[in-house]
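Input:
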Amino acid sequence: MSIAKLTWINVSKDLRLEWRSRDVFNSMMFFALVVVVVFSFSFEKEDSRPVMGGLIWIAFLFSTTMALNQSWARELRNGVLDAYRVSPAPAEALFLGKCLGNFILVMLLEGLMAPLFVVFYNLGTVGPFWQLLLVAVLGTWALVVNGTFFAAMSIRTRNRELMLPLLLLPISLPAVISMVTGTTQVLSGEGSPAVQLKFLAGFCVIFTTACFLLFDTVLNAE
Amino acid sequence: MKTKLFFAFAAFCCIFLAYGTYQGLVVAPTEETMGDVQRIFYVHVPAATVAFTLFFVNFLASLFYLWKRSAKADALAATTAEVGVVFCSVVLITGPIWARYAWGTWWSPWDMRLNTTLMLWLLYVSYLMMRRSSTGGSTSVLAAALAVFSFLDVPIVYMANRWFRTHHPAPMIGTPNLDPRMQHILFINMLAFLCFATLICWFRYEMERTAQNIDAAHIQQAAGGAAGMMLLPAMFLMAPGHVAPISYLWGGYLAAWGIYVGYLLFLMNKLARLKKEAAELGA
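Output:
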């Protein structure tokens, strides 16, 4: 079977599982909702714009972590991960499938949460909207690709889920900084996020390559 | 033979560091605007150089481990990450002490250079935590993979000073703005601290190897070296007699050496534990 077909099998399996149980998506959604509501009490409506970039990404970053942990924890039950390791299918297809599945899930969450941000913070973009969309897509991919990789790494350790934020947050800090800066720039219309977009694109390319090159090693680490 | 060489190198480091510190505190010309506080520079910049160098060695050792699976490369990677974190801590503590005087604030939260250095520190702390929490044979492989990722962030940190707006002084080495005498003394200090780092790494590496195949004989040889190193900071506190006792300057030097000594104490403690373990095993 070709890699594309194997990837598609992995993605559709993950999405079907999620569609039937909706365990992860519901908790992600609820968590993001709680963050939005709690912060809307803490900030004055008028001065919230400069901190919005940070707030939006805090909500998504932590809900993403939830999804990432679950996506591999699911494979541990019944030794599915061990079955993957002995199967002749390339590990890259499994990794890409997981990444795409998580990416779709997180993008869906962001799409559903966007109206809530508009409602709770009376938010609109001053800069062009397509730039915000681009920041969201590139930023989410940066988070998801690193996150999927480090979740696979952290389930191999003794602390399992506890390890993921400790590994993921420092590694993706440069991306998080430019996501936050870029989002704030579009929302407030102060400055163009062109530099941040270029930086994010570069970050995505470098780290996606590194993840693909090293995933096999991590999966088979003994 | 190895022990003799180690002690000879330790003695050389003592003298070299003492000379470098004396040059930095006494001989170096006083900077026009910042005065004596600028002398923190002779601890801050060398520590940064050492930290970057060690992280680079860590990256190379990790790559080599992924390629050849050699236990020595793994020990070297563990050593350089740990010592690198110590030197990076010195950078992060002496920096704010200087900044408090020069900028009037300890930390500037939107400064890319500061954030990225802190990020580097976080990355390698998480690397050390990873090593600590993973189980059995997978530790080395996972740690090596993580090290490769951590190092991918280093060029970003390095270029941050040039790409983004920052308060941090731009690198001045090789530009006409830096007094040639200052540059000379800075290079002496860089070399001295690189030797110092090599010495600590040597010691720590032997320990790591020992931990890998608990070998009591080796540990005893290294123990004397650490005791000798404890004398270093004591020497520096007495050395410069006629430098105006500016609290920031002293704060910077004390903090830096406090960390170095603290780390050496930690190593001693670890050594005692290893020895006990080895004795119990009857090795």
